[in-house]
Amino acid sequence: xxxxxxIEDDDRIRLALLLALEDEGYVVRGAATAEEGLRAxxxxxxxxxxxxxxxxxxxxxxxxxxxxxxxxxxxxxxSARDDTHDIVAALEAGADDYVVKPVAIKELSARLRALxxxxxxxxxxxPVYAFGGLEISPEExxxxxxxxxxxxxxTEFRLLCELAEHAGRVLSRxxxxxxxxxxxxxxxxxxxxxxxRLRQKIEADPANPRHLVTLRGLGYKMQR
Length: 224
Fold this sequence. Notes:
Strand content: 15-25%
Largest sheet: 5 strands, parallel
Organism: Micromonospora halophytica
Number of domains: 2
GO molecular function: phosphorelay response regulator activity; transcription cis-regulatory region binding
CATH architecture of the largest domain: 3-Layer(aba) Sandwich
Keywords: DNA-binding, Phosphoprotein, Transcription, Transcription regulation, Two-component regulatory system
Domain OmpR/PhoB-type: 126-224
Radius of gyration: 18 Å
Number of strands: 11
Oligomer: single chain
InterPro entries: CheY-like_superfamily, OmpR/PhoB-type_DNA-bd, Sig_transdc_resp-reg_C-effctor, Sig_transdc_resp-reg_receiver, WalR-like, WH-like_DNA-bd_sf
């Protein structure tokens, strides 16, 4: 059974999440502070971690950064803060997903299962995708721009590979949520945020992208 660590300072919410996830078949542990959660994860790593942003002492953003420095554990933010700025900041800190409170436990459980499937899925042998000076190598798990490595997160890499595999075709946000995140439905801002971050890394002029372009009202596509 998968193990989940819940880092949440509100005793009532933490207990509700622990009980609900236990009913879903997870082995669960709770922590009331970032410091307690970090110690627990280092001593006995969980398979996945849920993190609230508004934690006492060390906040959720720094907790995510420290978790990510330690290992590649899937991290889901569960927060009442639904501003796009907070979502961007959490994803940039290293979170894999963002769920807004109040939480529908069936949806949260589905997202946790999707993250585990993604973590287990190895890239199939495929050629290197080339877009001018941009190269994407699924087998090596690397992105290079003009021969230099480009640091990307696991989710950014999967998104880039999906777009590169279907170069020239428009993929809607919902298609990308399904193929990259494994969600039947979800917050389309997750796609927009990751696309924006990728443009900052792979485009010479992110404000006027050459390769990762938007088709207004339709979605995104990769082009040479």
